[in-house]
């Protein structure tokens, strides 16, 4: 019988792959780390542990989004304040 949480895990993996395209150290670096993390936990069968790992993955998604938004904010700020605010 297939695990009912498998769909959530696959969706999480796809979302992380998508977000990894803009990772500062490169997409290849991110993909390798992501695959390694998922392969390390591939044999986990306890539903509670799987939910815990999914919530950790969702936290990583939020952190990556924050990183990207901050980078975009800094780029916009540099365009409008070339010398920095207060100069």
UniProtKB/TrEMBL annotation:
It holds the Pfam family Complex1_LYR. InterPro entries: Complex1_LYR_dom, Complex1_LYR_ETFRF1_LYRM5, ETFRF1. It comes from the Eukaryota. Coiled coil: none annotated. Residues 8-61 form the Complex 1 LYR protein domain. Belongs to the complex I LYR family. This is Complex 1 LYR protein domain-containing protein.
